[in-house]
Design goal:
The complex is a heterodimer of chains A (about 240) and B (about 260).
Chain A (H helix, E strand, L loop, with lengths): L1 E9 L4 E5 L3 E4 L15 E9 L3 E10 L4 E5 L6 E5 L2 E3 L3 E4 L10 H13 L4 E4 L8 H10 L2 E5 L5 H5 L12 H15 L5 E5 L8 H11 L13 H4 L1
Parallel strand pairs in A: 9-10, 10-11, 11-12
Antiparallel strand pairs in A: 4-5, 6-7, 7-8
Chain B lengths: L4 E4 L5 E4 L7 H4 L13 E2 L6 H7 L18 H4 L6 E8 L7 E6 L5 E6 L2 E5 L7 E4 L9 E9 L48 E6 L2 E13 L4 E12 L5 E14 L2 E3 L1
Antiparallel strand pairs in B: 1-10, 2-3, 2-4, 4-9, 5-8, 5-10, 6-7, 6-9, 11-12, 13-14
The chains are: A alpha/beta (about 240), B mainly beta (about 260).
Amino acid sequence: EHVQTEKLSIPPGTVLQHTLLPAFFYKPNLWWPNGMGKQSLYNVVIAIDVNGFGESDSWSHHFGFRKIESVIDTTTGGRLFKVNGQPVFIRGGNWILSDGLLRLSKKRYMTDIKFHADMNFNMMRCWGGGLAERPEFYHYCDIYGLLVWQEFWITGDCDGRGIPVSNPNGPLDHDLFMFCARDTVKLLRNHASLALWVGGNEQIPPEDINAALKNDLQLHPLFRTEIPNSEEDLV
Amino acid sequence: MAEIGKRKLDSGWLAARSTEIELTGVQLTTTHPPSGPSAPWMEAEVPGTVLGTLLKNKLVPDPFYGLNNEAILDIADSGREYYTFWFFTTFDCQMSGNQHVNLNFRAINYSAELYLNGHKEILPKGMFRRHSLDITDILHPDGKNLLAVLVHPPDHPGSIPPEGGQGGDHEIGKDVAAQYVEGWDWMTPIRDRNTGIWDEVSISITGPVKITDPHLVSSFFDGYRRVYLHSTVELENRSSWNADCTLTLQVTTELEESVCLV
């Protein structure tokens, strides 16, 4: 469907962030949740060649074109989801984790997640007292069309609402919490099935953590605005 | 020249309880590596947890059945050292000039000390964070490398009140770790609090420039007819000279098995 290359020069010992020119697609196959259409996935490969050396590194990912929006409905107070502009009636299941000894295998994930799709679910809610689920979990949610609601590691019981009330200010090290949250977002953010990051279960994270999560997780303005029609404008 | 790409280290691991090993990590990865699964060393499940390895070696009953979990010593009673374990493995890696190698842990619970060929690195706390170390300069010239990791449980494993309850005494909430491990209304406590190298271990070989954490975002216009794919990558030039590069983005629809339409 699409190949584009760019030249760039990287000084020695440097780490830089590079945004490629947007790749344009006309009416690509969209990714839909279970029961609403196909879960079309594209194989995206990013490779870098170095003059005088050849291919230096490459990365690939199964990517789904989809737009997921959700807002709180002022009438009911419930959260309304839309995928590709279409409202979705959420049929969700609670998910803690595959196995208490963390024997997490692709085969087990595929079986568990296909089971939920066969039961006509279209969302998995990853509970805050469990895991930030693994890429293999998300891979099969991408394939079987299960949206994922992923909570961070805050629960009412352990963080300020349990009996006895404990840890009202959450974990001891907030910087460590944010480091883990940011690294987890980078690990999982490209999966089509990832629909919602949630601060915690039945509890709002401590104010500083909640504010940092909200700030870091908002959609970059670039993706809100209309793309100029010409590449010149864009550049 | 070693092949560019990622290779998982998911076999041939050994484990031993830290209190049963007198040697240091430097000795284990230089002069006194374990010779095989003979006591106190045992075959290990990596990725996996300490309890998973103990179960694999039938040193604990399977907590999944009946009241077996009651027969397994809880970390609150045993102390953290009891579930502090060494994990050991070897791997081959023959590189050529201008190649670089990273050793990657996708998740460790909860903190660890790593020794590779006698060099020590600290893997900081946190159950949900990746660790990636540039090991290019500490690989063995002959290609045979010795790796030992001493894994420590969460700092606050807590203890389970006689009446149980959701999250036990909630001490685990002080750490950045899964909280269900102290037990919940639907779950008995996990005796080792899921301590271990619980996710993928790999080595990745690159040339002078490495790609890290690409970010893909799509934006939609004209009723989903006009669509853009935005890609941002982090690039690191680990050589000592300027790298003139060609960056390629390729998007294909995998028709069947390995047939692609470009």
